[in-house]
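Hey, I'm writing a tutorial for new members on how sequence and structure tokens pair up, and I'd like a real worked example in the thread rather than a made-up one. If someone can provide the structure for the chain below, I'll link this post from the tutorial.
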Amino acid sequence: MKARTHQNRIPKFLLALGLCLGCLWLLVLGAPAAFAQTNIDTEKQTKIAALKKERDDAIEQVKKIVNQPLPRYARVPGMRVRVETYDPGAPTPDFDNVDVRQTQQLVDASQPPFVTCDLASGVVFRSADTEFNEMTKYFITDRSVPKKKLTEAEMLEINRLYRIIGQCRKDILHLSAPPMERPETAATDTETDSAPVRQPVPRENYIKAAIGVSAVLLIYVLYLLLRRLMRSCR
């Protein structure tokens, strides 16, 4: 009877050993892929952080150019002064295409020689030193005073910085978007916009599921082996 019991234990032990080795094999196959996915995510976040810094640096440089201070003069009786009204709105520039030289508006010679804002009491500025530009208004930090007339070189620099901002925005959006595996073939005329699009399950989800199942099976098999070993030692 003892010999038969010992012989019956051998196939069960081999079965448990096979399951254990199978779990380990799945872990060996799945773990590198999971670690690789983690490295990819880390690298992506690093790239996004670098792009955001480059974008923010370009924005700060634009603000410095746009918000250069103007010489101030005290307003005295008899001055011909034009009063500008504070306007809080500002359109977002087309960073990829706009040329701020084309949207620069200078003060006409027929206008009064001095200008002020309804928020700047007792202070005036020379009209010839000022400008208005719809495509730089977005970066004005103090709208209580007029803006300095920019030179050709300064406007070209803003154009260059705008291109950097636009490219960074697109790259950040591309890297932040979830991965989607779409067929390369063009949609046929029979497809409608309202039809639901079924996206394939990402490969890393299968890998994570396999690792999780393998880990559970491994723990269970080790528990059974330990329990059987303890019984055999009694």
